[in-house]
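Running this now, will post back.
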Amino acid sequence: MKKNVVSVLLTGVVAASMLAGCGSSSSSSDTAATTAATEAAAETATDAAAADDAAAADTEAASTVSTDPATYDGKEVKVWVADNIVDFTNDEIAKFQEAYPQYAGVTFTVEPVGEGDAASNVITDVEGSADVFGFAQDQIARLVSAGALEEVNPDYVDDVKSRNDEGSVNAATVGDTLYAYPLTSDNGYFLYYDSSVVTDPSDLDQIIADCEAAGKNFYFEINSGWYQTSFFFGTGCTLTYDTDSDGNFTNCNVDYASDKGVVALKEMIKLASSKSFQNGSSAGDATNYAAIVDGTWDVDTVKQAFGDNFACAKLPSFTGSDGNTYQLSGFSGYKLLGVKPQEDEDKLQICDDLANYLSGEEAQLARYQSVAWGPSNTNDQQNADVQADVALAALNDQMQYDVPQGQYPGDYWTLATGLGDDVIQGNLTSDTSDDDLMAALQTFQDTCISYASAQ
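Update: finished.
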């Protein structure tokens, strides 16, 4: 086909040249025009040949994906997922093998390894780790930097990007490369409250006052780098890191050491000084509480605690020390599905096909219906059952104020714990001067920056 196109086009070029030779009495302008036409025709022939080469290459690449079961028989694939979706995943893999009969002879082993532990376990022992594994998006930079995460199969990139919400796609991307398959858009936090105690869930001061009056606890984990950002992002502060295509941290964008940072820190101090305050975010560990900042994973526990008074809302706003009103913000997060690099290209194809299937529209909706994980798939998000979920509704309401969680150095989380502990332990109090608060934030900010410059 390619040779025929080139032959026909070159024939036209030769004919044009012969016509130019016969017209010896034509003007020089006619000759130039004919020459230009000849060159254009030749260029068209070259372009057509290149296009055919590309098409042939695509066809050849596609033909390397075998549908012969004998190609895959006997291969073994290990999958790591959270404990509460092991049975669900096994059921989905059975459906996957029905949809992909060439993989009927593949042995899939599903093991319970939580998203929070996956990256550390994979990096520690890449060879012995899972081939397909779920993980929280804050671990992606470490996985890429360690060479423990394969890029998403190019055949699936456009579809993955189009079917999932923007935040989850960004979370699965390092540099300009998509490295993972989005699973959920539910890894964030909001307010659970007892409606018989809390009269106005939109106002932080009122929540504190109501809990104090009722002798109830209010849980908020202010020494966590994840929850702590709700105050700083709420007043307009920035704390993000830039990474290169290898997952290395190249720059820190931070302005905590500022007037708005001081306002945020003072609000943390104010909350911690309340007799109702308890530092924490796990409903399973909470006692005598009427309000807790937590996520969808604890919805059943909170429902049991509050009974008919169970209620959810976005995070409240607060009046800062400067007299302005601020909406608490924070991180929005995502669960992702990754594929480990493989030397065996056939096995890599199995892993990519499986990851794409388990993160697809049908599987995401089924996962929500099974364990209430909030889908990142935009069609699933419009499902009536999903939209009727009050916890997800509160989370979705909060996410409009949140900052999608990017990549952060491991040392950042320890540093943030230290800042929160200084508040909890009384090293920073309402009597601390603004200058001393600013100095504490400057130290925090400089240390954050050092994590990128040390790369």
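The chain has 18 helices and 18 strands. More later if anyone needs it.
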